[in-house]
């Protein structure tokens, strides 16, 4: 078994083995974020789905109202005047075949890749490089589009793509531990509503199994699923 550090042991002692009310859980997340760098706030949601069936897959985007707390580096693969349009809309990198070649050679100076539909046949060749990193553009993820200014603005403002892994668990970063607990709650609620809204058609029985939150280096804290789903937030 991996050795548990003294810091983590002390933090684990603060977490009780029970589901917490959402705001209580987020206050505890902030209290246990004691690493020497700005930690992210993460949610780990176990769903009652089996993603090996196409009608039980979950892949979508969430717009986090309070943002991600990260500077998202966006790359765009387009052609002609769309390249200049992407640059003026705030893309960190934009290009056509030459950018595809750079990525094929291992250049990964971006967090998100957007492509126009006409470039997708060429982008498809990058599947082996982009797929394992979760960077392959997809229409479902909002990253295959001709409306580059809108897509770039949304992703830079706090839109995130997420998907359920092979075991039916969704792992999503929903802000920074340095956010206020209330801002984290607003983002977590938006995430919960998105997961519910995009329930796969083949999902049978109980959809939500468990949800845990944690900071990057902190202990997992269980959140009361029903309390989160029943929560009504007043519009900020």
Automatic annotation (TrEMBL):
Gene3D superfamilies: 3.30.190.20, 3.40.50.790
Cross-referenced InterPro entries: Ribosom_uL1_bac-type, Ribosomal_uL1, Ribosomal_uL1-like, Ribosomal_uL1/biogenesis, Ribosomal_uL1_3-a/b-sand, Ribosomal_uL1_CS
Molecular-function annotations in GO: rRNA binding; structural constituent of ribosome; tRNA binding
GO BP terms in the entry: regulation of translation; translation
Cellular component GO terms, alphabetical: large ribosomal subunit
Keywords: Repressor, Ribonucleoprotein, Ribosomal protein, RNA-binding, rRNA-binding, Translation regulation, tRNA-binding
Subunit-level organization: Part of the 50S ribosomal subunit.
HAMAP family cross-referenced by the UniProt entry: Ribosomal_uL1_B
NCBIfam families: rplA_bact
Protein purpose: Protein L1 is also a translational repressor protein, it controls the translation of the L11 operon by binding to its mRNA.
Homology family: Belongs to the universal ribosomal protein uL1 family.
Protein name: Large ribosomal subunit protein uL1
Organism: Myxacorys almedinensis A
